[in-house]
Specification:
It is a single chain. By secondary structure, the chain is α+β, with helices and mostly antiparallel strands. It has 2 domains: 3-80, no CATH class; 83-192, Nuclear Transport Factor 2, Chain: A. Helix content is 36%, strand content 28%. The strands form 3 sheets. The chain has a 3-stranded antiparallel β-sheet. A hairpin with a 5-residue loop joins β6 and β7. It is elongated.
């Protein structure tokens, strides 16, 4: 991984910088830039005994910049390994399940489904579009049902825009006699990153 240092300004007193040049880069790590503004904000908010010693101020600023660079490198490596992306999908799965429990299955699917989402149901029926998916789950036979699930496997594309999960689900509903029917099966969900960065 290449690190490009454009320049390092050690005498970084706020009086030396105006708002116009706060966006100038101190360092660039891959496609991530550390600006003068970010450096100043992070430096001033970081408590450190050595900052009180004026003889060590310049060396401490340089050391502090290197810690910011190391932080960005760790973040980039975590992204490359898919840590952040897989955690987002895990969080989305659990939030999806919680909404299904709290607000109902129809509302949960309507909230999380893409406009062009497709679900497969009984007799290989395909239900297309979030509006039709919501209508399906609002039917009398389903509206009082509950469902829970846990992903057993999760995979995210290298670009971070698509992911998929699969695992076991438990579906419970009341029949006409008032008895609880329990059905288990395997689910498979495809996640797509949206324009607002949410999945």
């Amino acid at each position: 991984m290449k690190i490009f240092l454009f320049f390092i300004l050690l005498t970084f007193a706020s009086s030396h910088y105006s708002q116009d040049n706060f966006e100038e880069p101190l360092a660039r790590i891959g496609n991530i830039t550390i600006t003068a503004e970010e450096f100043q904000q992070r430096y001033e908010m970081t408590p450190a005994f050595r900052k009180q010693n004026k003889n060590l101020t310049e060396s401490f600023k340089l050391e502090f910049l290197f810690t910011l660079i190391a932080e960005k490198l760790w973040a980039m490596e975590a992204y490359n390994l898919g840590y952040d992306r897989s955690e987002v999908i895990q969080f989305s799965e659990k939030a999806f399940e919680k909404m299904a429990s709290d607000s109902g299955i129809a509302e949960a699917f309507y909230y999380y489904a893409d406009e062009n989402a497709v679900i497969k149901r009984e007799r290989d029926t395909l239900i297309k579009g979030k509006e039709n998916i919501k209508k399906y789950y609002e039917s009398r036979e389903i509206i009082n049902a509950t469902v829970s699930w846990t992903p057993d496997y999760l995979e995210v594309s290298d670009c971070g825009t698509l992911g998929y999960t699969y695992g076991r689900f438990v579906w419970m509903a009341l029949n006409e006699a008032g008895d609880t029917l329990r059905h288990t099966g395997v689910f498979h969900t495809v996640w797509k990153r949206q324009a607002d960065v949410n999945l």
